[in-house]
Amino acid sequence: QVQLVESGGGLVQPGGSLRLSCVVSGNIVSINAMAWYRQTLANERELVAVITSGGITDYADSVKGRFTISRDNAKSTVYLQMNNLKPEDTTVYYCNADTGRGPLRSISWGQGTQVTVSS
User: Fold this and answer.
1) Closest C-alpha among 14, 17, 18 to residue 86
2) pLDDT digits (tens, 9 = 90+) for 50-71
3) Closest to 113 in 3D by CA, of 40, 25, 7
4) Which run of H or of E encompasses 76?
């Protein structure tokens, strides 16, 4: 069983910053890619940023230059630094982790953390 626990959401003014954290725990042999998603108005989850086990990153066009994903493998933690936040960034953010190998490989999700950007 793999658990993901997010933290760091909250209320911030436009132009402000927040840093989200997500700790992965449980029966983990290895952590492959880790990512952050967010809920859309259509109630779907869109990819915000992803980081591979080797540190390669990719971002949604809407957040490039403003958000930075990073990971601390020793702490089994992934971060999302969000700068210059905009009202349209308001939604629930979810952590995602691809763990394990072969038949033990699984995709796990956190419970979500609310980010609200408002003056």
Assistant:
1) 14
2) 999 999 999 999 999 999 999 9
3) 7
4) none
Residues 87-100 have pLDDT tens digits of: 999 999 999 999 98
Output the average pLDDT for the chain.
96
Phi, psi (5° rounding) for residue 102? 50, -130
Q: How far is CA 38 from CA 65, 73, 109, in A?
A: 17, 23, 12
Strands (DSSP E) found in the chain? 2-7, 10-12, 18-26, 31-39, 45-51, 57-59, 67-72, 77-82, 91-99, 106-109, 113-117
- What is the rounded distance in angstroms from the CA atom of residue 72 to the CA atom of residue 64? 21
Cβ-based burial of 5 (10 A; exposed 0-12, middle 13-18, buried ≥19): middle
How close are the terminal C-alpha atoms of the chain, in Å? 40
Query: Bridge-partner residues for 39, per DSSP?
Result: 45
Closest by CA to 119, choosing from 97, 94, 90, 80, is 90
Identify the DSSP state of 28. Answer: -
Amino acid (1-letter code) at residue 1: Q
